[in-house]
Every structure is written in C-alpha cells, then in structure tokens.
Design a protein that fits this description.
The protein has one domain: 3-Layer(aba) Sandwich (Rossmann fold). It is 39% helix and 14% strand. The strands form 3 sheets. A 7-stranded parallel β-sheet has the order 3-2-1-4-5-6-10, sandwiched between helices. A two-stranded parallel ribbon has the order 7-9. A two-stranded antiparallel ribbon has the order 8-11. Helix 1 links the parallel strand 1 and strand 2. Helix 2 packs parallel to helix 3 and helix 6 packs across helix 10. The two termini are 21 Å apart.
C-alpha cells in the first residue's frame, strides 16, 4: 500500500510510519520541516495546495495527524495556532483529495478523546457519549479544547470527498519513544514524583502503541466502518490506579502525590496546562469492540510492564523502539 501521513513527523506519526515502512509499504510523510527519515518526507505548509497533493493521487490511505501540540500554555497566540493548524490542514487535505484523479480509498483524520465531557460515572462511547464544554466545574481552558475538537471534526465532516472518512478520537498513545507521554510519566515515577494527581479520581484513557497501530490498520481494511471511532483501550482507570500500576511496573515503591495547587504552579513553570492531567477522560472503544477488534493490551498493568521493559531496553541499546 501507499500511505500518506500529513503532519506525520511527531511521535504518533513516527510510530505509524515506522510500522508501515517496516512491512514494506510505501510511506510518505508531509511535514513543515522535512528531515531525513527511513521513509520519504515531502514539504507542505498545512494550509495551501501544492506539489505535495500529487502524493495523494492513487494512494491507498491518507492519515492526517497535523496539528500543533497542545502541550503548551493556552495564550491567545497559542490558541490561534492550535485551532488553525488543525482546521486549515484538514480543509486543505480535503481540497487535495477532491482534486486528484484517483482519490485514496480511505481518509483517516486525527481527532481526540478530549471532545467528550469531564465525568467519572459513565464511560463515553461513540453512541451515547456526551460532548464536553458545559460542565459546571470545568475551567475555561477545558472549554477551549472542546471547541477546538468540535471545529476540527466539523472541518472534516464538511469536506466533500469520494473517499471513506474515519475520525480517530484517540486517547493518549503510550510508547517507549523518547519525549512521548509515557517517557514523561515514567520519568516522574523514577524521580519519586509519580503519585496521584489532584484527588486521583479522574479517569485516564490510553492506548498501547501496538494496539493503536493495529487499530489504524484494521480501520483501513474494514471498508464498512466510517464516521467517528474511539481509539482507546477498553479499560480506562482512575489516575491514582493508573499511576500505582506504573510505579509497580517500574519497580518504584513510593510516588509523591500532587494536589491541584501544586499542579497549577508546576504547569506554569513547565509551560503547559493542568487539563492534560486533571480532566477525567473516561472513553471506551465501543465501535471497535462491536466490530470484533481484539486488543493485545486491554489492561494497563500489562501494557505498563511491556512499555517499561522496552523503555529500559531502548536506553541500554541506545536505539529507537523496535
């Protein structure tokens, strides 16, 4: 297959490109900052049509992951960049697909599990899940994230193309690669700072990288599936339990907890937002499960043990993830 990945230079794009390329597929990543990779990297600006659009003609799948990282302070300038980088790139990918002679069979578009409400009691699936933004106890910055997610999916829905379209409402993808979310969390654990965040009741939705890759492959192959799909483990768990399992997998006995005020102060110094840690994301992949997708790592304890083992192995070997 030929797979084109706009915005594929980040961690998730690298995970996908590495897997497809290893299996002999033709992988093309579209990037604003082309660099040397084992696969082809083509320049684009994420806003306007250009020569890059020729790569979509006759390809099998487009997986658009473009969007500025949300791991930053939500200043007015950053908010504009976060929103524009998602909406404009989605629109231009749709324009490119509508102009090529042989459109891709499927367009997989990144979205986010953050689109759902902050709640503890009921899991959000694709049928009965509730969009967030109206929660009484949610800070204004959380509403911004919901607004971005909804605008992102609206731009995708409004793109009139012949290709099958799937919106990937993804949870955090856990990989041992350097500078990813798992690497960050494990670093805190190893420093003795991996205790519960806030009251620890907020749910963490996650997915092991192998299940993320296999779910993307599965969605490419299953032509009857379109629309929004939650890409997450079927077993989200409260933050306190999540961190306890990670400490056990890492062989660390104690983790210092951090209350909300400590997290707010730390977020300022780390130039990020507490939403990434304090919002309860209780999301389940109902459509994947109903259609027969089988997770290799449905339980966080098992996923954490595998990720810790590979994280240690990678640092000992000084190599990239296998």
């Amino acid at each position: 297959m030929k797979i084109v990945i706009p915005g594929g230079s980040g961690q998730v794009g690298t995970i996908l490109a590495r897997s497809f390329q290893r299996d002999g597929h033709d992988v093309v990543v579209l990037s604003r900052r082309p660099d040397v990779r084992p696969w082809r990297v083509v320049s684009w600006d994420g806003r306007t049509l250009g020569d890059w659009s020729k790569e979509l003609d006759g390809c099998d799948a487009v997986i658009n992951l473009a969007g500025r990282s949300v791991n930053c302070r939500y200043t007015p300038a950053n908010r504009k960049t976060i929103l524009d980088s998602r909406v404009l790139s989605t629109r231009v990918v749709g324009q490119a697909i509508s102009h090529v002679r042989r459109p891709p069979r499927v367009w997989l578009q990144a979205s986010t599990a953050t689109i759902y409400s902050h709640r503890y009691n009921v899991a959000n699936d694709e049928r009965s899940g509730v969009f967030g933004g109206d929660e009484r106890d949610a800070p204004e910055t959380w509403k911004f994230s919901i607004d971005v997610a909804r605008a992102w999916e609206l731009a995708f829905d409004q793109s009139a193309v012949a290709s099958r379209k799937v919106a990937l409402r993804s949870a955090m993808t856990m990989s041992p690669d350097p500078e990813g979310i798992f690497d960050t969390l494990l670093g805190l654990v190893r420093l003795g700072l991996g205790g519960r965040a806030g009251d620890g009741r907020q749910y963490v939705s996650w997915i092991h990288e192998e299940d993320f890759v296999q779910s993307v492959r599965w969605l490419i192959e299953h032509e009857a599936v379109d629309g929004a799909v939650n890409v997450a483990s079927p077993n989200p768990l409260p933050n306190a339990e999540f961190m306890r399992a990670l400490r056990q997998a890492a062989g660390v006995r104690v983790g210092m907890p951090a209350n909300r005020l400590m997290l707010e102060i730390g977020a300022v110094f780390m130039r990020t937002e507490t939403e990434l840690i304090l919002k309860s994301r209780r999301v389940v992949p109902r459509r994947l499960l109903d259609q027969g997708f089988v997770f290799k790592y449905p339980i966080w304890r098992d996923a954490a043990l595998d990720l810790c083992r590979r994280w240690k192995q990678m640092r000992q070997n000084g190599s990239k993830a296998a």
